[in-house]
Model the fold of this input.
Amino acid sequence: MVLVNRSFGIKICNAKDEFSIFLRFACTSGFDALCRAGDGTRCQGYPNCSAELNKRKEVAMVAFNVVRFKVKPGMETAFLDAHRHIAESWAGLHHANIIKTGEGRYCIIAEWESLEALAASHPQMIATLDSFRETLEDLGGGLGVTDAVAGPVVLSAK
Done:
């Protein structure tokens, strides 16, 4: 089996039950490197990559999404309460944090098992947004009430 995703630089080959994984920007070096999961081979001089692959025993394309909000005065509790149980309805979500970036300004940072999982949970995320939309102010500049970005991890430190 060969899987190639040119947009993310991934090539996975299964030959005789050994997986060879070519990950662009996956190793701590930030450079292309050849890794072999499960066979203990080092990552062409970058031991952290091999150790991480051996620890996971699989390669997952972790993704994050980040959404910025401006909450109306006095509505912070309702905004936060709407997010308390998202892990139950957002399949594929590993972890999420909401940070306060200023007065009435918040940002959710969510880690997903993959871009596909993130995309599949879009309807549930919109349903969650609809449950607290009235607590939000327009961000201006044509953005509406949210400013969202998402993408795969291209470098992981520590």
Q: What stands out?
A: Strands lie at 2-5, 10-15, 18-23, 33-37, 63-70, 93-102, 105-112, 147-152.
